[in-house]
Write a structure and sequence with these properties.
It is a single chain. The longest helix has 14 residues, at 181-194. The chain is built from 10 helices and 10 strands. It is 36% helix and 25% strand. The chain has 252 residues and is α/β, with parallel strands linked by helices.
Length: 252
C-alpha cells in the first residue's frame, strides 16, 4: 500500500532543546494511526509538525522532509497544508459564535460559496454535521452559540469544522481526554466510520483506545519512534523491550 504521508529525518527543537529526533515514518490512507508514549515524549509536537502549526511557536527550529501525496509540504503555503491536513485539539475549541458560523468559517476562509467554489454552504455544513452524528441533535438550533453545546457535542462540532474543507488527513490530539465514557464511545465509533474517507492520526494516552480503534501504532519515547507497526502486533508482540515495558506499565 502506498503511503499518503512520508516523514523523513524530521527533527524539532525549541530554543536548541531537541524534542523530536530524526523521525522517519509513513502514514497510510484510510487508516487510523495511533501515537502513544509518556507525557513529554514529543507526541503533540510531532502532530503539530505535520501541518506546520509548530512553526508558529517561538524559538522553534525544524529540519527534515514531510511529503504529502509526494509533495514536499515545505514548498506549499502553511494555509494550504492546514487545509489538506486538519487538526482538532485536546480541549474543544468552538468559536464564540453560532454553530452554523463555526462550520461556515473555514469554508468562507478558503473561498467556498464564492463563484469559484459555488457548492452550497448549507449542503456542506449539513453533510459534515451528519458525518459526526451531530446534525439531528442541532438541526433546529444552528443559530445557537456553539459554546452552549455539551463538551462531547463541542468536540464533534470541532471535528466537523475541520472536515468541512475536505482535508486528506485529520490530526487529533487526545480528543477524548476531557470526555466521559459515552461521549468517548461516540467519538471512537465516528472515527472508525470516518477513516473510510480520511486518514486519521490520533495522539492518545489511553492504550485501550489505541488498541480498540487504530490500524497502526507508533510508540514515541524521548522524541524518537521506538517502534511502529500494526496495532495488534505492537501490543501483543512488541519487538523492543521499552515498548513492552510501557505497555505493561499502563496496559497490562
Amino acid at each position: 500500500m502506498s503511503s499518503i504521508l512520508e516523514i523523513h529525518q524530521l527533527a524539532v527543537a525549541f530554543n536548541n532543546k531537541k524534542i523530536l529526533k530524526n523521525i522517519n515514518a509513513n502514514i497510510y490512507p484510510h487508516q487510523i494511526t495511533a501515537i502513544i508514549g509518556p507525557s513529554g515524549c514529543g507526541k503533540s509536537t510531532f502532530l503539530k509538525s505535520l501541518n506546520r502549526l509548530v512553526e508558529d511557536e517561538r524559538g522553534v527550529t525544524l529540519s527534515g522532509q514531510i511529503r504529502l501525496d509526494g509533495e514536499d509540504t515545505f514548498t506549499l503555503s502553511p494555509e494550504e497544508v492546514r487545509r489538506r491536513i486538519g487538526m482538532v485539539f485536546q480541549s474543544p475549541t468552538p468559536f464564540p459564535f453560532s454553530i452554523y458560523d463555526n462550520m461556515a468559517y473555514p469554508l468562507r476562509y478558503y473561498g467556498y460559496g464564492s463563484k469559484k467554489k459555488s457548492k452550497n454552504l448549507d449542503v456542506i455544513i449539513r453533510n459534515k454535521l451528519e458525518d459526526v452524528g451531530l446534525f439531528e441533535e442541532v438541526k433546529d438550533s444552528l443559530s445557537m452559540n456553539a459554546t452552549l453545546l455539551s463538551g462531547g457535542q463541542q468536540q464533534r462540532l470541532c471535528i466537523a469544522r475541520a472536515l468541512a474543507v475536505e482535508p486528506e488527513i485529520l490530526l487529533l490530539d487526545e480528543p477524548c481526554s476531557s470526555l466521559d465514557v459515552k461521549n468517548t464511545q461516540n467519538i471512537e465509533m465516528m472515527l472508525r466510520a470516518l477513516c473510510q474517507q480520511y486518514s486519521i492520526i490520533i495522539v492518545t494516552h489511553n492504550l485501550f483506545q489505541a488498541r480498540r480503534i487504530s490500524h497502526r501504532t507508533f510508540f514515541i519515547l524521548d522524541g524518537e519512534i521506538i517502534e511502529a507497526g500494526p496495532t495488534k502486533d505492537l501490543f501483543e508482540n512488541p519487538c523492543d523491550s521499552r515498548t513492552a515495558e510501557y505497555i505493561s506499565g499502563i496496559y497490562g
